[in-house]
Amino acid sequence: MVEVADQDLLSAPVLARDDVVTLTSCSVVxxxxxxxxxxLPIGALVDFKPPASLQLPQISRQPxxxxxxxxxxxxxxxxxxxxxxxxxxxxGQGNVxxxxxxxxxxxxxxxxxxxxxxxxxxxxQSPPTAAQPHLVLVIDATLDSxxxxxxATGLIEALSSLEASTRISVxxxxxxLSLHSLTSDSNFSFTMPGSKPLDLALLAAYLSxxxxxxxxxxAVFTLDIKLALPRxxxxxxxxxxxxxxxxxxxxxxxLGLAVEAGLRIMSASSPVRQKPATTSRYSQRLPRGSRLVxxxxxxxxxxxxxxxxxxxxxxxAYHERVSGLGHEYKQQATAAQEYIASCVDLAKALAxxxxxxxxxxxxxxxxLLSMLSRDTQGSLMLHRGFGPTFGAGLRSCFSRCFGSSAxxxxxxxxxLQLVQxxxxxxVLQSPEPEDVGLSMASDRRLSGSACSVARLQExxxxxxxxxxxxxxxxxxxxxxxxxxxxxxxxxxxxxxxVTTRRxxxxxxxxxxxxxxxxxxxxxxxxxxAVLDAKRLGALWESTKADELRLSLRAQxxxxxxxxxxxxxxxxxxxxxxxxxxxxxxRSLTLVAHTLYQLQRAVMLGPPTHAPxxxxxxxxxxxxxxxxxxxxxxxxxxxxxLLPKLMCxxxxxxxxxxxxxxxxxxxxxxxxxxxxxxxxxVSVIVLPRISLAVPNSGESLTGMMPxxxxxxxxxxxxxxxxxxxxxxxxxxxxxxxxxMREVYARLFPAGKDTISDLEGLHPGIRAVLKDxxxxxxxxxxxxxxxxxxxxxxxxxxxxVMLSFQTI
Length: 806
Ligand SMILES: [Zn+2]
Known about the structure:
Elements: E1 21-23, E2 27-29, H1 32-36, E3 42-47, H2 51-54, E4 58-59, E5 78-80, E6 85-87, E7 94-96, E8 115-120, E9 134-140, H3 145-160, E10 167-173, E11 176-180, E12 189-193, H4 200-208, E13 223-224, H5 225-238, H6 255-269, E14 291-296, H7 309-313, H8 327-350, E15 354-358, H9 366-375, E16 380-382, H10 390-399, E17 401-412, E18 416-422, E19 426-427, H11 433-436, E20 451-457, E21 461-468, E22 476-487, E23 493-506, H12 509-514, H13 518-536, H14 542-563, E24 566-570, E25 579-583, H15 589-600, H16 619-631, H17 634-640, E26 644-649, E27 652-656, H18 661-667, E28 675-679, E29 682-685, H19 696-699, H20 708-718, E30 730-734, E31 741-745, H21 754-760, H22 764-767, H23 770-780, H24 790-796, E32 799-800
Parallel strand pairs: 2-23, 4-8, 9-10, 9-14, 14-15, 15-16, 25-32
Antiparallel strand pairs: 1-3, 3-21, 5-6, 6-7, 8-23, 10-11, 10-13, 11-12, 17-20, 17-22, 18-21, 19-20, 22-23, 24-25, 26-27, 26-28, 28-29, 30-31
């Protein structure tokens, strides 16, 4: 082994990058038995962020990698510029690096910063073609008139943001399929029957112009967006809702055919046709940015891909998991699945993602739609009712993808091992070099932990979980995460983002607990609970969901029993009736809150799904929520687990999605003045006192600054009490360029006694008058007396929460 001397570099501080790879704790307890079994996971979060937002040092030389374990050189390696050598900080292997000889090592950013990006141009790949992307819109024409307007406004807003030369085609569907010609002098449409398989010959005749419109005018189905926008606007305005007397879910909708037709239009108008020498499959990759966007409010109810109403209600969409299902229903479900799989193949051959936007929500046959979006690397988004944020959401959907063919890899020090990846990752299947861009790197080695990410999207992220395999003796262990992807924006360059995080080894529990990142831990616990729920079958079996909820409480009790001191509440008489509880650490309140929220959130909480119970929390709703949580970046996971905001309107409280709060306000000035937070069955009514935003300096950073007027509007809107009078509420704004989201953190109070409330919210008496308290308690009782509040739920697990803000 090459002996490597300490270098002056070691004394220099390393620039830590917690925003690239976030550790659940920057320390770990040296005893493996405790480290692995205290209920707090050891792991990290990796959010997918485009290079521009991270601004990491860019290195164009090939990375130095350990010849034994393949790890990348990092600031924790011992290096010598005399010997031209370095020692791997993960396995201890000595390595030679000629570049170091006689060099000033502080000039190597990979030796000074935890996160760097190695960037290689693509030498062999041709520059991206000048061809313009093709966008196909497939729009459900069965929306309610109230939703149509919001959808049209948002859609036009998003389309206007695209490059003027983007080519666009529009299809609408209800009981029939309509292909729309888009020029101003050919504003007519062709229809095709919705209940039969697609007539390919007829479609080809339409597309080739063999069939023309009135007066022999030729149809133009694909046109530059700039020229097509006026026609699309009129088109959207002329959609007349059908069957409005029918429930939205059962209106006639030939969704499957519309998707197939959209893909075939793309294929027919594709300028690029190539047959790679390596594969026999005919490939027609469309220009980058091409996509099919499906906007719908319900499931496929006509033509191929349909499940009958009875089949859908019996749970046939989940046929692989639901027991006792009729043969006929199973057959229907299999046929629908096969048809959608054939559409997926079409999309894959064109390399276009199918993005699905759901405006309804319930009973959409989510397994089928999820398959269509997931397998084509698209995304599935919920925009119930197409509110004012729909346009912004769609716009970000158009621009979110920043890399393709990514490989995620992980190296750890001796003594640690990777247990699980949680998120939008797939098993790595013997990658073809050109697929993962590895041909551009001289060293193509991957560890056994590597997995692939089909398409990198901003707003998505993964979590990883580790274990300690033996008692740790070293003062620290290391975790190295490598994300490599093709960045198509600059001529298809390969980016290798290497991050090395140091985890100190400590011997005291207190030292460990002080270093736990409660937010990251909560996100990891939430992703794990959701993945466990999917694997267990909690989606469709209420008993499994019950088990999972109990296991969340057991987890709380486990953390308490291992990490928290015992407190005697009462001595009892002669040793009888003595009561002891565990005092939960203040720094981990968010973890308790997350576990509580998880067991009552839509995806796991009551009311559970049972075949007779579809109308309450539908399995589709659960599946979409679960996938969203599993794939989302950490900030979105935190947001999903926060209480909901309710708004007093028309004599009742209505749920207000956090994302819509500001939008609602700035678009609709008539919003009710009462807002309250729903904590399941327990609610907090916010008193009518204007607010000085707590910690405003801190909370408002990282967002577009609000004008004074907007800020005072917001204060009046949210109506939180004066800072200091009530500690719990905290309002934060998230978002890079637009303040689209507000989120609030509050303790559920509900049925807790007034003295508990006063403990949680010191000063509550000062802001609530007696009659307010009456009202507060009245609405707090909720509809389902069986639900527990946070305090009660923790208490049932033998845990006492500290009274403080989270
Ligand atoms: Zn090594």
